[in-house]
Input
Amino acid sequence: AIPAGAVTSIVGPNGCGKSTLVKLAAGLLRPVAGRVEVAGHDTGELASRERAHLMAVLAQSSRVPPMTVEALVACGRHPHLDRWGWESAKDAQIVRQALTAVDLAEFEQRDIQTLSGGERQRLAIATLLAQQPELFLLDEPVAYLDLKHQIAMLELFAGAARECGAAVAMVLHEPALAWRYCDRVLLVNGDGVTECGPAREMLTAEKLSALYDYPMLAFERDGQLCLIPQ
Output
């Protein structure tokens, strides 16, 4: 379960199924057994528009046609428009706010193809913010980002949970960031074994050493956790 108003991190080694789990939650894959529900709806039975109202998905990679930065972020507002409607002044304001939040306010008229990898990642995040969903499903949201923007983007999603009541689930490869920004952590071992609980209980040297099959050391200082390989 991914609770509203909280951030849940999915942590595990390469190939353990983290991205597959995100796709299942988003309704992009059908489960062999069981069911996935979002706000009481079976994701596999939702129409695309209904799904876009409920959830926003950040994949590891995506292809978009040539367009301006502003035009792409405006796509995040489409689920909220009438079938033949145009963006309103309010929609345009939401787009500008999203671009400002990801530090791309000066890039509105830039062609997407001219952006760096990190800038494209922040642009994708701005599009999700403009969508204003109830659930964010994020596959490695801080990939390609420098340290400053890693922290800034995680602050945004933590704020979406804390201030807007959104449910946030994200795949993270840095346990220390998961410890700092996530309320709950799902450990995925890849052999069918999973464990979920409060971040402080899941992100221990003992559990992470077993998860990654490599000895880890954990240090806490000034209320923050440092994790390093032994």
